[in-house]
From TrEMBL:
It comes from the Bacteria. Residues 96-267 form the MOSC domain. InterPro entries: MoCF_Sase_C, MOCOS_middle. Pfam families: MOSC (PF03473), MOSC_N (PF03476). This is MOSC N-terminal beta barrel domain-containing protein. It comes from Anabaena azotica FACHB-119.
Amino acid sequence: MPYLAKMLIYPIKSLDGVEVEQRRVLASGALENDREFAIFDENSQVVNGKRHSSIHKLRSPTAGRSPSHFSIPHRTISLQLPGQASKHIFHLDKERQALTTVLSDFFGFAVTLQQNSLVGFPDDLESTGPTVISTATLQEVASWFPGVTVEEMRRRMRANLEIDGVPAFWEDQLFTASGDMVAFRIGDVQFLGVNPCQRCIVPTRDSLSGDAYPSFQKIFIQKRQATLPEWVASSRFNHFYRLSINTKLPKSEAGKIIRTGDKVEILTSDA
């Protein structure tokens, strides 16, 4: 039986995720606190892993630790910068200027931390709902790359909702060849599957060091095409560097709560 096994939100875009057990759906369709903040440079360009590989090094020096730690209830972020023994802890609301000063020093140029509590800062401005992937998909894709663990692949793909109890690429049912959205439900919350998510350069790099995996994109494309289930709407793949599903949510779902353990059910393809 498909169920929601993990839920991850990313309070500051391009920094680490936080695993949560429940989350409220915003009117925009986003999960509360997901990509609520983003770092911007003086040209109003977002500072992210696509443009700045150094962002991976905002991390704790302890092997295996994630780069930063968020406390959602306390609204704090803890960062340990390269070459520094002590941690920096900042309140995201009360100490934002101090945080941006440290981040500016780290990047070597002035940055600001902007907030959008209504929509967040999604990559896809048309599909602002959470991204969906299955645990089996992460396991399968990790197997394509010797030395890359499932947890590491999870950090690279940065999906919000992880479905278990299903085979690899189960989530590819959540879009159609015609472009119609697919209605599905997680617990009491209805979603609309839109399209397979186009990946960027970020998954090609180690999530903690920023080091590139040799030929990652080439291997991914070859394996993704070779393992694409026969029933998948392959016409939606103008290339095969796509994984996880972008979603929208009907306005009626605003304020509802989604929880790990919730049952997942595909309703209809006539959205």
